[in-house]
Amino acid sequence: MKKTEINSTEVARLAGVSRSTVSRVINNYSNVPSKTRDKVLTAIKELNYFPNASAQMLAGKKSRTIGLFMVSSGEIAVDVLTNMMIVSVIESASDLDYYVLTFIIRNTEDEAMINNVREVFYQRRIDGGIFIGTKHDEPFVEELIAQGFIIGVFDQEHTEKAVPNRVVANFNNDSGMKQAIAYLLGLGHRQIGLINGDRSRLSGIKKYEGFYEAMKQQGLAINPSWILDGDFTEQAGYEAMKRLLQGTEPLPTALIAANDSVAFGAIRALREQGLNVPEHMSIIGFDDHVLSEKHNPPLTTVRVDFKQLFKELMQMVIKQIEEQSDTIREIKYDCTLVIRESCRRLD
Amino acid sequence: MKKTEINSTEVARLAGVSRSTVSRVINNYSNVPSKTRDKVLTAIKELNYFPNASAQMLAGKKSRTIGLFMVSSGEIAVDVLTNMMIVSVIESASDLDYYVLTFIIRNTEDEAMINNVREVFYQRRIDGGIFIGTKHDEPFVEELIAQGFIIGVFDQEHTEKAVPNRVVANFNNDSGMKQAIAYLLGLGHRQIGLINGDRSRLSGIKKYEGFYEAMKQQGLAINPSWILDGDFTEQAGYEAMKRLLQGTEPLPTALIAANDSVAFGAIRALREQGLNVPEHMSIIGFDDHVLSEKHNPPLTTVRVDFKQLFKELMQMVIKQIEEQSDTIREIKYDCTLVIRESCRRLD
DNA sequence: CTGAAAGCGCTTACAG
DNA sequence: CTGAAAGCGCTTACAG
Predict the structure, then answer these.
(1) What residue in A sits closest to B78 (Cα-Cα)?
(2) Which of A39, B113, B310, B345 has the largest count of CB atoms under 10 Å?
(3) Is the pTM higher than 0.85?
């Protein structure tokens, strides 16, 4: 296998220069005359030489690698949305000539697993990391930030602890909620319910709060029995809707789900009771999941541009790695209502 | 940021031993008395020390990193299946305590891009690689294998060039074709068509050949105008079906698509002409795509277990990395017909 | 413009 | 059982 690992000494010998010069050529130093440069380049090509990455890093170069940490219990490989996020991150890193080391954190309570995460940073395998799916307050993430590692977070807001090495990207969920409610109002709905997402996540809290506020601003009464607990899964949507249907209260005419998966589950529960969407209840989701358009009925939803968001998050993280500036980097993306066929006009 | 990088010297000092001993503890040498070991372990914990990965690698350790190279032009982040494969690979590596560095190769003709792939190997950033989506004969992959790098390939068969550092995983597409045709026969179909996949890929060839052979074995005539060219995309299925519908020949009563996406496209084209599945034509796909079950009608398809296949491929690659044995590692997974509602019994 | 040499932080024969 | 020292393959001040 490894007959003759080619190193800079061999290149230097073939080119008739010192290893210092070979290194200068590789690193594009300006003070190498083009004649020398050419000799070295020719030797490099001839020997098919690539500098050993470990040696370069040990001598002080960056790894050009970003860690992507994805919190997700269970069978993640089945979740379309999660996968899409992973690939978005990889693609945008690759555009900037960075590598991505990906991790799935199945359980944030598992000390051994969390230690693996820490390890990757302290080992200097990566220049920075991006966390997706963490709770709003995750001690090990805070610890890494406190240690000075450059970390990009999604769905987190710690304005009181803004530091240059904490890079932040969020969606403006308030805006999404307002659009959804405005649209429903336009259709004549006044009795509107909500299935909550995971409220240990920022977006879960924000959607909940956004709903309350938007309803209040519009002067609409909130019926507490129409506010259902849940998380961000199809199953949670299904169960929440079942609970709602089993209650004795009258049903809302419209309902907003914390995301599209939740909406799918809710619609499934309705259908099991012989109720149809939008005839018997109007439903709005969040995210614009790949399946939403193909869903029956096509789901009206608040679209959120994950691809663009992660691209920009990655760009900011890399910028901070390369510039180490004092800038606080933070973005908030707006979202847009996509009207399809899961809501009806009330007569 | 980097105030005091902790290194083995500091651990050694705190523990009152030499760096050699620290290293022995970290690497689990047997000849360290437990008393010494404990002192060192305590110091490591107290200093929150993690050995620098580059230094370890430079001194001869493996990187414990596998490269995952995914050939896919265009907007890969949108393709459910591709994403699922990526995550499967990451998860199975992680189970074995390996890291995965993922690359998207958008264009195998792009020399710069291919050079990035080469680079990662020669730089020793990875201990081995897995390629998905390459053509059956891809010069740069062959070159890397010839160089002795340990490489896992999917959907490739080079029995004449079997070497221990080429690890191979395939599906038995012949078997799938036979099952599909047997089922259609059972329903009374004798006029069966095929939309081909990408025939620069092994599975494209194998499905085509498997179809021919199975038809022949069953004594069924093959109508050349029912054999449509295509690739593995929805669009190709749509276009192939359109061509078929525009022809003057009578239509087949059933058609097998190279994969489920192709089947979706074909069904869309049929529907545009007011033709329904399975009333007007029976359709069978391949893969059991996440959407197939939810499709209208639910798609009958040949299921293939990507998750399991990639898990085993990863295990074999890692085994070869760690054992460097002369074993030829190769697996072939069977596939299974999943009957849903896209085929009907002929009267 | 360029080479000799120190240094990055480990591992591991070698010697005791 | 354990330490001193060489070596892994680079980069980069330093000196000329």
Answers:
(1) A84
(2) B310
(3) yes
CA atom of A96 to C1′ atom of C4, Å: 36
Give me the A residues in range 37-66 that sit within 7 A (CB) of strand C: 55, 58-60
pLDDT at A2 over 70: no
CATH code of the domain in which A43 resides = 1.10.260.40
Q: A 172-231 residues with CB below 8 A of B?
A: none
Q: Which residue of B has its CA nearest to A53?
A: B123
Three-state SS for chain B is: CCCCCCCHHHHHHHHCCCHHHHHHHHCCCCCCCHHHHHHHHHHHHHHCCCCCHHHHHHCCCCCCEEEEEEECCCCHHHCHHHHHHHHHHHHHHHHCCCEEEEEEECCCCCHHHHHHHHHHHHCCCCCEEEEECCCCCCHHHHHHHHCCCCEEEECCCCHHHCCCCEEEEEECHHHHHHHHHHHHHHCCCCCEEEECCCCCCHHHHHHHHHHHHHHHHCCCCCCHHHEECCCCCHHHHHHHHHHHHHCCCCCCCEEEECCHHHHHHHHHHHHHCCCCCCCCCEEEEEECCCCCCCCCCCCEEEECCHHHHHHHHHHHHHHHHHHCCCCCCEEEECCEEECCCCCCCCC
Same domain, B166 and B311: yes
Q: Is the dihedral of CA A20, A24, A30, A32 positive or negative?
A: positive
Strand D nearby residues, CB < 7 A: A 5-9, 19-20, 22-24, 26-27, 49, 51-52, 55-56, 58-61; B 17-21, 24, 31-33, 36, 55, 58-60
Q: How far does the CA of residue B99 sit from the closest CA of chain A (Å)?
A: 7
Q: If you average pLDDT over residues A183-194, what whole number do you get? A: 97
Choose, out of A8, A44, A68, A124, the residue to mutate when testing the contact with B (most B CBs < 10 Å). Answer: A124
Provide the pairing of β-strand A151-154 with A166-171.
Answer: parallel
Closest CA to A226 of A258, A184, A195: A195
Range B115-129 average pLDDT: 95
What is the count of structural domains for chain B? 3
Task: Provide the 8-state DSSP code for A133.
Answer: S
A155 & A136 share domain: yes
Rounded to the nearest angstrom, the minimum Cα separation between A347 and chain B is 31
Report the pLDDT value the prediction gives residue A74, as an integer from 0 to 100: 58
* pLDDT tens track for A303-330: 999 999 999 999 999 999 999 999 999 9
In the predicted structure, residue B77 carries a pLDDT above the cut 50: no
Looking at the structure, tell me whether residues A288 and A315 fall in a common domain. no
> A271 CB near a chain B CB, below 8 Å?
no
Q: Is the CB of B162 under 7 A from strand C?
A: no
Do A105 and A140 lie in one domain? The reply is: yes
> Which residues on adjacent β-strands are paired with residue A282?
A254
Which nucleotide lies nearest residue A33, CA to C1'?
C1
The predicted pLDDT at position A87 comes to 80
pLDDT at site B80: 67
